[in-house]
């Protein structure tokens, strides 16, 4: 009898330990950091398909979307802190609830426009300088087996897929890399005025990103309300180019713990 009682007690302790661990993980995920896996190429060259990162949820305060499935009983935003232009941000799509990651380029009150492939903020064209060629292998990438888009197409499987790379300088002097592949629909837009408590986002892969340049009815994200922001992406923790993170031969060690600029 004593042995059965001891075994039962040991099992209950194991269950309690698992429950406490899950509760702690839930608190950490809700209040501090949320894991995020990059599924698409819209943020190349800054973020690659297969990059794994943790989103800093303390950066902008908390809203209902700080909890999984948007269940936090929060109206608006508490402990709010304004994001900075140039931040790479994870946010909830305003209509379909999907997590997106893009770069914040437009703050409330800004006027944003693309003219001939160049970003204009408040009527001023942002300076860009050539930064060589971004080259990757023309092969399926990540679990979704997405093929890269190439400026030098057609490209045979396994060949070099190229895109022109530039450094774009934001009004505060911060620089980040962008890619140019082709003349597309997003290269010329109307002027957007960003309302109060909303933000304008763009992907660094300018010709391969459905972002705030495009209305939600066309698959874009439109302007994003402040309460939809989940957190800031600061650093890549792990990166794998293959269809599974277990495929160690596809790991990218040079991207482990890489700062996001």
Q: Can you describe this structure in just a few lines?
A:
The chain has 261 residues and is mainly beta. It is 11% helix and 32% strand.
Structure overview:
Helices cover 11% and strands 32% of the residues. With 261 residues, it is mostly beta strands. The strands form 3 sheets. Strands 1, 2, 3, 4, 12, 13, 14 and 15 form an 8-stranded antiparallel β-sheet that branches. The chain has a 4-stranded antiparallel β-sheet with strand order 7-6-5-11, with no helix packed on it. β9 (160-169) and β10 form a beta hairpin.
Q: What percent of residues adopt helix (DSSP H or I)?
A: 10-25%
Largest sheet: 8 strands, antiparallel
By helix and strand content, what is the structural category?
mainly beta
Overall geometry comes to: globular
Gap between N and C termini: 63 Å
What pattern of helices and strands is seen along the backbone? HEEEEEEEEEEEEEEE
Quantity of strands, as a count: 15
**Count the helices. How many?**
1
Evaluate the radius of gyration.
Answer: 21 Å
Average predicted local confidence, pLDDT: 89
Low-confidence stretches: 19-31
Q: How much of the polypeptide forms β-strand, as a percent range?
A: 25-35%
């Amino acid at each position: 009898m004593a042995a059965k009682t001891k075994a039962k007690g040991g099992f209950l302790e194991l269950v309690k330990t698992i429950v406490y661990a899950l509760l702690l993980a839930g608190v950490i995920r809700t209040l501090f950091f949320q894991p995020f896996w990059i599924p698409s190429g819209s943020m190349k060259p800054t973020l690659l398909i297969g990059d794994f990162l943790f989103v800093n949820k303390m950066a902008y305060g908390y809203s209902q979307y700080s909890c999984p499935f948007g269940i936090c009983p929060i109206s608006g935003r508490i402990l709010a802190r304004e994001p900075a232009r140039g931040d790479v941000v994870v946010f909830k799509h305003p209509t379909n609830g999907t997590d997106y990651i893009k770069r914040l380029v437009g703050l409330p009150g800004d006027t944003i426009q693309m003219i001939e492939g160049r970003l204009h903020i408040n009527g001023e064209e942002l300076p860009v300088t050539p930064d060589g060629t971004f080259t990757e292998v023309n092969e399926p990438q990540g679990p979704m087996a997405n093929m890269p888009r190439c400026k030098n197409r057609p490209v045979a499987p396994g060949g070099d897929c190229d895109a022109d790379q530039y450094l774009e300088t934001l009004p505060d002097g911060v620089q980040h890399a962008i890619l140019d592949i082709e003349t597309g629909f997003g290269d010329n837009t109307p002027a957007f005025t960003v309302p109060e408590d909303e933000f304008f986002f763009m992907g660094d892969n300018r010709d391969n990103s459905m972002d705030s340049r495009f209305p939600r009815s066309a698959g874009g994200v439109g302007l994003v309300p402040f309460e939809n922001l989940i957190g800031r992406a600061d650093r890549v923790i792990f990166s794998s180019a293959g269809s599974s993170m277990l495929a160690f031969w596809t790991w990218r060690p040079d991207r482990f713990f890489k700062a996001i600029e």
